[in-house]
Amino acid sequence: MELQQRKLTLEITGEHNRRLVFQLMRRLRTSSRQQISDMTSLHRSTLSKIMSEFLERKLVREIGTEIPAVKRVGKRRVKLEICGEIGWTIGIGINLGWARMVWVDAAGKVLREHRFDIPKDINKVPEALKQALDGQMAETPLPPGRLYGAGVATPGITNSDTGVLIYSEYFKVRNFPLADAIRRQLNMPVVVDNDAQLEALAHLNQPDTSSGDDFVFLYGNYEERDGACVFTEFGSAIVIGAQLYRGAHRGAGELSGRLRFPPSPPLQPDDLQLLETPDGPMNDRLEALAEHLAPYAATLAGYIDPVSIVLGGAVDWYNRAFRQHLQARVNEQVQPWFAGREIRVEAAQVPAAGSAYGAALLALDQVPVTELTGER
């Protein structure tokens, strides 16, 4: 029994180490053995064994050598990347009345993106997702490699282990078996998680983010009301030490009670375009939105003390003037007597629809690395 337990422990540890290296390589896009070694606590012999296995199974490939910024003695470091053609996953971000779908390969590259309408009745959503996927598959050749499954991002409290949507104000349901319902329609493995958590995961998996390893992710959804756009829901995720913090009951980041954001001042449709324009100007409506968000963002920032607050969700918050205004207001309100502290406000950096992209990554992460293969 003791020998069997030890063997099981070694297998679990081995898979954990492979997953750690694979995810890090996906995040960096290109990397060297030395870079991976510097960013993990893996022993050199362990890393060498993992990399040899990856190369032998054609999960990764060598793509040349690094050219150092400063000339140094010794062999140049070999650059490596994941072979994206070993397979792909589907990510779906569902909202009230519409959804976004992305296809993502094993290296994290977006292959296809599509937005489409869905029913507001959660019971009818799985069939609508199947119709959208069937339509996309009929329009274009399938990517190389195996389709490993789908990930779904949804508003509300979820249990990704069971695939149950525990509670959603958006869809007015409790304990809805969403993963099972979608799995029956798509006929493939399906994992479900909260949209804010998954877009935070997507942001974490980008090589050039400057938000640090500790940040609060705010995910905003809007509705159209009488020709105006109103942010009616904000979710959040907490990242500590470059890891999602889910809490003892998987409810960390849930905004309720006095932390729940009330509906925002109305915006015009053109204002949403301004929010997504890096050099866009401010106007009275955007300033009112920043003033509306500031006390809630400051409360979270003051309690958690992150490096930054990252904004994501249904719009891309690229407008620098808006973020600078919000950042100034947050730092005025988050214990201004705390000398030397300045919390940044940044926009999510994702290559496609954020929560859908994160869902695709989560779907791939459900597959043991030992089972990844380029065979269909």
Please state the average pLDDT score: 89
Strand content: 25-35%
Number of domains: 3
- What is the number of strand segments? 16
Helix content: 25-40%
The neighbouring-strand order within the major sheet is 6-5-4-7-11
Can you walk through the features of this model?
The protein is an alpha/beta fold and 376 residues long. Helix content is 36%, strand content 27%. Strand 4 (87-94) and strand 5 (98-105) form a beta hairpin. The protein is globular, with a radius of gyration of 22 Å.
What key phrases describe this protein's structure?
single chain; 376 residues; alpha/beta; Arc Repressor Mutant, subunit A; Nucleotidyltransferase, domain 5; 3 domains; five-stranded mixed beta sheet; 10 helices; 16 strands; 36% helix
Task: Write a compact overview of the structure shown.
The chain is of the alpha/beta class. It folds into 3 domains: 2-82, Winged helix-like DNA-binding domain superfamily/Winged helix DNA-binding domain (Arc Repressor Mutant, subunit A, Orthogonal Bundle), CATH 1.10.10; 87-199 and 354-371, 2-Layer Sandwich (Nucleotidyltransferase, domain 5); 207-347, Nucleotidyltransferase, domain 5 (2-Layer Sandwich), CATH 3.30.420.40.
